[in-house]
């Protein structure tokens, strides 16, 4: 009999646990026989770093050009130190700022593996800024409106010509005052389905604050405008998306995001998702694998 789905998952978890037991989470080296302590200072018994002298010696012995490995080890130490970031930095003989910046670079290396070719951390940080700004999927803010007011006016005047206008009808001209909780940018209703749409505009880049904002307007519309059988959806429109907001949206099925681009005589709107953002940071092979995995998940 084939293993059931849950057995399969359990087997997989056990396998991962075993792998973890034989693999150091700090330096990624294999465990030597049954040694309780890894050379990097991590204790397989206590599951935290215990030999800080060993850890510090390892980090200090790394040549300058081995910065990607150093950053990853520092991240491993932070995740397995069993103590605060400040204490960890002290043990490593660095300041907290350096340790947190190394941790950030380790995360950036996961998204942009090509950073590893930079000669040192400073040049990697410069390259990271360019990569983030010029990321093909998330164009820079050129072609953005001057203010939210301008974007709002434009959308309102040209609503019927946008993609949204084919399905949604604007409910009011101008901002919509939602009692004591603030002012909504736009409110629309679906032409045929019993659905309301709250639209929140960001002229440049989003920050995840936009999620709290749109949820409270959606709640207000649900409570004060929608009928018993009507539902409420949210749409964030911005020139550029940030990864924090995109991760948040993964768990908000009723809220989506679109990026806008101003063309000479129209406004282009396109749907944006986390997967698109993640794909942009991958090598061509990793990209193929991720696409294959996500389409088999959907199937
Ligand atoms: Zn180790």
Quick synopsis:
By secondary structure, the chain is α+β, with helices and mostly antiparallel strands. The chain has helices at 5-21, 52-61, 67-79, 85-92, 96-111, 121-134, 148-157, 209-224, 243-249, 274-280, 284-298; strands spanning 42-43, 48-49, 168-170, 176-178, 182-184, 186-190, 195-205, 231-240, 255-263, 266-272.
From the alpha carbons, calculate the radius of gyration and give it in angstroms.
Answer: 25 Å
Order of helices and strands: HEEHHHHHHEEEEEHEHEEHH
CATH topology of the largest domain: Trna Endonuclease, Chain: A, domain 1
Strand order of the biggest β-sheet: 3-6-7-8-9-10
First-last Cα distance:
23 Å
Q: What does the largest sheet look like? A: 6 strands, mixed
Computed structural class: alpha+beta
Helix content: 40-55%
Number of helical runs? 11
Number of strands: 10
Spell out which ligands are present.
zinc ion
Number of domains: 2
CATH class value of the largest domain: Alpha Beta
On the 0-100 scale, what is the average pLDDT? Answer: 83
**Are there runs of 5+ residues with pLDDT below 50, and where?**
1-16, 136-141
Shape, please? elongated
Strand coverage percent: 15-25%
Q: Would you identify the CATH architecture of the largest domain? A: 3-Layer(aba) Sandwich
């Amino acid at each position: 009999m084939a293993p059931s789905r849950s057995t399969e998952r359990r087997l997989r978890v056990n396998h991962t646990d075993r792998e973890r037991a034989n693999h150091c989470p700090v330096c990624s080296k294999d465990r030597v026989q049954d040694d309780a302590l890894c050379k990097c200072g991590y204790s397989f018994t206590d599951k935290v770093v215990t030999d800080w002298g060993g850890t510090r010696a390892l980090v200090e012995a790394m040549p300058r050009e081995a910065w990607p490995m150093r950053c990853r080890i520092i991240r491993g130490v932070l995740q397995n130190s069993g103590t605060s970031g400040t204490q960890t930095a002290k043990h490593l003989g660095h300041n907290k700022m350096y340790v947190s910046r190394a941790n950030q670079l380790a995360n950036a290396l996961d998204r942009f593996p090509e950073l590893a070719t930079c000669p040192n951390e400073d040049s990697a940080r410069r390259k990271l800024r360019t990569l983030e700004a010029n990321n093909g999927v998330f164009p820079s803010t050129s072609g953005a409106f001057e203010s939210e007011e301008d974007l709002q006016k434009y959308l309102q005047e040209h609503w019927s010509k946008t993609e949204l206008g084919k399905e949604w009808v604007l409910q009011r001209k101008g901002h919509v005052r939602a009692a004591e909780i603030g002012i909504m940018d736009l409110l629309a209703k679906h032409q045929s389905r019993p659905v309301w749409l709250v639209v929140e505009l960001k002229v440049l880049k989003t920050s995840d604050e936009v999620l709290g904002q749109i949820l409270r307007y959606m709640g207000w519309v649900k409570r004060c405008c929608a009928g018993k059988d009507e539902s409420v959806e949210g749409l964030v429109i911005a020139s550029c998306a940030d990864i924090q907001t995109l991760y948040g949206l993964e768990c908000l099925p009723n809220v989506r995001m679109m990026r806008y681009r101003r063309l000479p005589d129209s406004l282009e709107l396109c749907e944006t998702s986390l997967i698109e953002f993640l794909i942009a940071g991958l090598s061509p092979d990793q990209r193929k694998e991720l696409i294959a995995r996500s389409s088999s998940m959907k199937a």
